[in-house]
Amino acid sequence: MSDEEHQFESKADAGASKTYPQQAGTIRKGGHIVIKNRACKVVEVSTSKTGKHGHAKCHFVAIDIFNGKKLEDIVPSSHNCDVPHVNRTDYQLIDISEDGFVSLLTENGNTKDDLKLPTDDALLTQIKDGFAEGKDLVVSVMSAMGEEQICALKDIGPK
């Protein structure tokens, strides 16, 4: 045995996948699916009958959870689809910088400064107006597949 200490630099993540497989036939309206490498919320599912080549097919119509674009995909119902791990986390809003980034307070007392203001005009106006009025605001941040975006706002009263 040697007394040397070895330092290893980790260049990879912990191996936690951004998605998990789920059979296409079990994905329902309101669920999530990955279409064209985008995390989407399913708004419509229709299943065709088994045809000459034996597979029933699922036709998914879904909305990208980050940019609101409509995407469609057709997958054999017995095949697996990627389903994103979607998380919502609430943070207290501390500050808004001039370049459009927000400063958020995490549960453990640290700050999170890497998020931009949302692109949704109505939500953007609500956040800016509420912050200007000195309200205590809590933002909900949706994260999936390495992307994060503010998706909702709660007013918890004046400061």
UniProtKB/TrEMBL annotation:
Region Disordered: start-end pairs: 1-23
Keywords associated with the record: Elongation factor, Hypusine, Initiation factor, Protein biosynthesis, Ribonucleoprotein, Ribosomal protein
Coiled coil: none
Classification via CDD domains: S1_eIF5A
Post-translational modification: eIF-5A seems to be the only eukaryotic protein to have a hypusine residue which is a post-translational modification of a lysine by the addition of a butylamino group.
Domain Translation initiation factor 5A C-terminal: 85-154
GO molecular function: ribosome binding; RNA binding; translation elongation factor activity; translation initiation factor activity
GO cellular component: ribosome
Gene Ontology annotations of biological process type: positive regulation of translational elongation; positive regulation of translational termination
Amino acid composition bias (Basic and acidic residues), ranges on this chain: 1-12
Domain of life: Eukaryota
The keyword Hydrolase is annotated on this UniProt entry: no
Family, as annotated: Belongs to the eIF-5A family.
Function in brief: Translation factor that promotes translation elongation and termination, particularly upon ribosome stalling at specific amino acid sequence contexts. Binds between the exit (E) and peptidyl (P) site of the ribosome and promotes rescue of stalled ribosome: specifically required for efficient translation of polyproline-containing peptides as well as other motifs that stall the ribosome. Acts as ribosome quality control (RQC) cofactor by joining the RQC complex to facilitate peptidyl transfer during CAT tailing step.
Official protein name in the record: Eukaryotic translation initiation factor 5A
Organism: Artemisia annua
Taxonomic placement: Eukaryota, Viridiplantae, Streptophyta, Embryophyta, Tracheophyta
